[in-house]
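The records we work with from here on pair a chain with its fold. Taken together, the tokens spell out the fold as the letters spell out the chain. To see the layout at work, look at the sequence and tokens printed below.
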Amino acid sequence: MLLRITSTTAPATDLGYLLHKNPARVQSSQLAFGRAWVFYPEATAERCTVALLLDVDPLGLVRGRRPGDFLLQPYVNDRPYVVSSFLSVALRDAFSTAMTGRSKERQQLAATALPFLVELTGLPCRGGERLLRALFEPLGYTVAARRRALDERFPAWGESSYHDVTLTATRTLRELLQHLYVLVPVLDNDKHYWVGDDEVDKLLRHAEDWLPAHPEREQITSRYLRYQRRLTREALSRLVDDADPDAEEVVHAAAEEQLERPLSLARRRADAVLEVLARSGAQRVVDLGCGEGRLIEALLRDRRFTKVLGVDVAASAIERAGERLELPRMNERQRARVELLHGSLIYRDPRLAGMDAAIAVEVIEHLEPDRVDLFTRNLLEFIGAPLSIVTTPNAEYNARFDALAAGHFRHADHRVEWTRAQFAAWAGEAAQRFGCSVEIAPVGDVDEQLGAPTQMAVFRRGGAA
């Protein structure tokens, strides 16, 4: 089985530093089921490719084991030829330090999202190309797959479940390796080793940063743990608990609200967004990062909006939104207009397709800087509504808040607060990249020197008003 990873970030040979493998040497290691080689078929300053070749010993797999019902099965199978859970073991053995995100010589580069090309030859996709895309596309990958025939010499025999797959994405190398480590066995759905309690810890260790918000979280967890219900329930429980905010988040939100209350900023933000939505004629709206549902409540009061989706990564926020909206007490007609979904803002989610407008009010500042690009792509490409609205604090205006210490953000969970120039640069680049027009507008009273307290970007595509 063969895996190839290509970097084109100059000097591309820095890939060797990130992987702790010298491009000038062929390295090999003996594993319980065969031998693995790491080598570089191409290593120039412009393009560097590392290959992991795994030679599985079919006889070594069955020594000392009792045969099953089909006596030849241990000897006549696909294991030596396809990408499978054996590759995950080889990845961990060959690139263990890279999977932790550490690099002695190039630590800053290891922490940077870089463009990578991944090629997998003969990947079993038990679930077809649909599942392949459902697993990788929400993580920001572009997927190309060619399904292989059962036998190229006899086309009439039909197609197999094996695919030659190419993945492209801009991720840190650590994230890339962790995604492959977890998702390759999920696609193969046939782990070669016993799955016990330690597999839960292994899954969480390699997936806790991205799996809680993945739309296929349950299927990934179940397949990875070989459908063992007890282990699956334990893993999902720990994942969901880790994804939910604690009481401290409520305190921080209250502090931000108190800071902005003299400006009536929460109401003015909602009014500004609702005005743009009303002018556009949008009827189906998704509120990304809906929190406890205040804006959804306002949307439902306007009969022009026939469908309102609220999405939040925190299950507890969704629960609070349901309580605020009193969903159980709604009449049937009103209840049909609203739906609350536990999901991510940065991963592709087919449930959000087909909306007239997508809004993210005071959300983007809560994202880690390296996740902003994933959010932007999800908003403007994957959701791709005719109208998208983003609001965020204007960092320059913070100087007008007497209660806010210099250099501090308005909310303890904010990861970034942009100046007007920074926000305009992000919005302009995003609009150009995804084929939209964009308009920047102030929200709140405008200070002659510092601008308005909130800034709003309105993205339009097609004939959106």
Notes: Residues 236 and 410 are 33 Å apart (CA to CA). The chain is about 35% helix and 20% strand. Confidence is low (pLDDT under 50) at residues 67-71, 242-252.
